[in-house]
Every structure is written in C-alpha cells, then in structure tokens.
Design a protein that fits this description.
This protein is mainly beta. The chain is 11% helix and 30% strand. The longest helix has 6 residues, at 27-32.
C-alpha cells in the first residue's frame, strides 16, 4: 500500500480482516522510536496537498519544542484539534513537501476500515514531551 494510507469507503482497505500481521522487528527497533505526547497549538488548511490535509503544529515540551506535520486528519474539525493532546513519532526524519513545508513528525492514530484516522487518546494530566511507551 506504499508509504501513505488511502481513504476508500467502498473497498475498506484497512478492515482488520484484510490486514496481515507484520514481520518481527525486535524490541530494539521499537525502543529506537521516540514517541511523545504533545499539545496541538495550531492547525492550518493545506489546500495544496493532493489529499485533504492539515498543517499541524504541536508543542512536544521543553526539550523537543514545537514540531510541524502534514496530516490527513480532516475528519476532525480544526476546533477539535487545537488544544488536544496527541501522540507523535518524532524521530523518523523530516520530509519536505512540494510546497516547501517541512513535515517533522508522524501523528499516530488507529485507522477505520476506510482509512480515516482516529487519533490516539491521551489521559488528562499528561505533560507535553512525555514519552509514550
């Protein structure tokens, strides 16, 4: 399916019955990921992208600071995202998009069968920058 997911309500490419189990990678690979809680501080429309997307700016606390990402989470209105705590994988490298915008992290969520993203929930009181384990 490539590097990006697709949203397809007719074929439902992410239905659990269609998803094969991935190969073993080892605990070291898992612990190499830097996943952190962050607070969404700004969300902008990103009409230049081929698929409906937002530019998202997230505060990952005092050590990491604010990072930006492009995310296909337009199933959430901007008002539900600003101030929300999210989980991001922050050490996957930067990707420069055709508009010059730099995507610096991957926001994490569970995919509905059609490919729509359901953002992971963070309990109240978790601080921006907290490690997700």
């Amino acid at each position: 399916m490539g590097d990006q997911h697709v949203i397809d309500s007719e074929v439902e490419p992410y239905h659990p019955e269609k998803l094969e189990r991935k190969e073993y990678v080892g605990i070291g690979d898992y612990f190499a990921l830097d996943m952190r809680a962050g607070k969404v501080i700004d969300v902008e429309e990103f009409p230049e992208m081929r698929k409906p997307s937002y530019k998202i700016h997230v505060d990952f606390g005092p050590v990491v600071g604010t990072l930006s990402s492009s995310a296909q989470i337009t199933n959430y209105p901007r008002s539900q995202l600003i101030g929300r705590m999210v989980v991001g994988a922050i050490n996957l490298g930067e990707k420069t998009l055709p508009t010059g915008f730099k995507s610096q992290f991957l926001i994490l969520g569970a995919l509905d069968p059609d490919g729509s993203v359901n953002l992971l929930e963070i309990p109240n009181g978790v601080l921006p920058g907290s490690t997700v384990a």
